[in-house]
Amino acid sequence: IGELIPPGTRFPLEMARDADVGSNSLLTYELSSSPSFSLALRQSVDGSKQPELLLERALDREKQSSFELVLTAVDGGDPARSGTVQVRVNVTDANDNPPVFSKSVYEARVAENLPEGSLFLRVLATDADAGSNGLVSYALGNVPDGVPLLFSVDSESGEIRTAGPLDFEETSKYIFGLLATDGGGLTGHCEVQIEVTDENDNAPEITILSLSSPVPEDAPIGTVVALLNVNDPDSGENGEVSCELSGEAPLSIVSSSGGSYKVLVLAKALDREEAASHELVLRASDGGDPARTGTARIRVTVLDANDNAPVFSQAEYTVRVPEDVPVGSVLVTVTATDADEGLNGQVKYS
Hints:
Keywords: Calcium, Cell adhesion, Cell membrane, Glycoprotein, Membrane, Repeat, Signal, Transmembrane, Transmembrane helix. By secondary structure, the protein is mainly β. The chain has one helix and 25 strands.
């Protein structure tokens, strides 16, 4: 009997035969007690009674797949004689149960550097039906664009694997649906939430936003020389950046309140005559293990200021001159030099 047969349906049973005659052959029937079935009798044309099995309530194969009943025929003799037959009812399956996932929401944490094809989650759906009605296959359901390029599900095992490279900095969480479909076309649904965890796969990036060069050598201490942006797209300690200057440069680093901007300022007075330019390297290191670094090379030239007076080669020149020396004669040549450059270093005599 199919499990979807409606209550009230009758199923004919085999009639008993009694070789006696008269009242000794009059048969009545009895059925062992069952909440799902009862006995009904149908009067035949010849006056005999046809026993029928009457379905009293709906069946559910998943709760009970078979019934063992006993049909008894009793004649009208004195004493009465009886015969019995066993009635076995097998309930055949109907596809009345959809697949059911073991969880409504599956969660997983996946490192962004996990190799393609790595298994990180397995889902399970069961179907109470039998045969092909209970065979479950899995597939991606309602998914955002791009998810099929990053994740795949095995239709038979429910294993979910990476199908492409993940990038925490691009997307840190994915939410999509999975379908479980049985052989009769019924489906079950669940949700998969995947959190992508950060790996230290990005080095700090240094961007020079502005650079004042050349810098006047008489610029005061604290003058802003450069404005830099230091960024690491990683998260947590992997994205925490510290900076240092290398090279003998009269500059120091001042961090902004947010930490991503760095200001280079004069830390001591400049002297173009001592060094006309300064080459320095800014090194930014993150807090990952191992740490990643980024560098930027900065060249600052020093603009001359007229901070040096001309200096004679001698402090005093002594010349002996005959009294009859002709007018216009060269008595001595004096020289003076100036450490400044350009017009500041051009010397005139008077």
